[in-house]
Amino acid sequence: MSHTVITTTTTTTRTSGDSVLNMGYTRTIPGMLKMGQMVALLVAFLCVHCARGWPSWAAFQYFEVVVLWFLIALTIFFLMHLFRLQGKMPCINWPLTEFFHYSVGTVLIFIASIVAAAKTAGVSALVAGSVFGFIATFLMAVSLWTSYSVTCGSHQTGG
C-alpha cells in the first residue's frame, strides 16, 4: 500500500505598502519639505513665545497665532500622509486642499514675518523668530509650487 502525503506551507509576507505607517513618505521631497516647515515654524513660535519684552504686543501675538495655526495644520497633513489616511476619506480632494493650505499659509506667514521683522526693536529672539518665519515661508512656497504642479500641472491634449 502506498500513501501519498501532501504538505502545504503558507507564508504571509507584508510589503512596505501594506503597513499602517508609511515611513517612506519621510524620505520623499514633499515629506522632507513638510518636516522642514514644521521645524522652522516650531522654532519661530518658540523664539517669539519665549522672548521677553515684546515691543509690539499685537504684532507678535498675530505672528504667534498664524505660525501656531499653520504648524498644527501642517502636522495634521503630515500625519495624514504618514498613516495613509487620505485613502480612508476619498470625499476630500487632498491635493487641492494642500494647495489651498500652502497658498494661504505662504501669504499669511510672509506677512507675519514682515511685521515681526519690522517690530523686533533689536530683540535677538524676535529677530530669530522672524528669520525662521521667512525660512518657513520659503519652504511653503516650494511646497506650493510642487503641489501646484501636481494639482494643476500641464494636461496633454489630443491632436
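Above is the first protein from milestone M3; the second protein from the same milestone is given next.
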Amino acid sequence: MLKSACLVIVLQALFLVQAETPAYIKQCRRDDPKLVDCFIGAIEHLKPYLANGIPEIQLPSVEPFKMDTLALQLTEGPQGYKITLKNMEAFGASNFQVKSLKLSDGNEPFKAKIVMPKLKIEAKYTSSGVLLILPASGGGDFHANFEGVSADLTGKTSRPAAKGGKYLHIDALSLVLDVKDVKMSISGAFNNNRILLEATNLFLRDNSQIVLEAMQAQLQKKLASEFGKLANQLLKNVPIEQFYVD
C-alpha cells in the first residue's frame, strides 16, 4: 500500500514538472553528446512563438521587429544630404536559421551565427540638404529589401538567482551584420514631385550599399539592444533547469 502511494506521488510530481515546462521550450538532455545541436534545435523551435509573440510572458511578436530612429549623413558639406528614419519596422526576423553556436565557457563569451534569407524594412523618413544638385528636403515612406542576411552574435551571460531557481541573463550583446544584396527606395515624398522622387530613387538604387554602410553601425547597435531585451524577457521567465530533461 505504501509503495503504491509513493508511486502515485512520484508520478504526480513528474506530471507537474512536465506541465510546468512551457510549450515554447524544447528541452535537451544534459548528457547529450550533441548538446549544442540540441540547443540550436531549441532556438529554432522558438520561431513560430517569436512570430506570434508569447502573451503569458509579455514577449511581443518580432513580426514586425520594431526599432526607433536612425540618423544618416549621406553626403558631406554644409548642404550635405541627411536622412532620418523613424518608426522602423523589419519583417522576416522570425524566419532565421542558426548556422553555428558556441556556448559560453567561464569568462569566454558565447557566439552564434544566424542567417535570414530576406529582411524587409519599412520606415518613415525625413531628409534635408542637396542631392544630385537638387534641393531634396522632405519626407515620406522609406522601403528597403535585404537579401542574404547574416548576423554574428557575441555575448556574455550571468546566472542570477531568483524565486524559482537560477535564470540565464544576457549581460552584453554585440552584433555584426552582413547583407549580400540590398535595394532601397522612397515613396509619397516631395508632394509626389516626379523629378525629386526619381532623383532620390536613382541615388538610392545606385548607392544602396553605401547607404547601408552609413547606417550599419547604428543598425547593429540597435538590433543587438533589441535582441538582448527580447532574449532576456524570455529567459527571466524560464529557470535554467527547465531547459533540461534528465
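Note on the second protein: Residues 103 and 180 are 27 Å apart (CA to CA).
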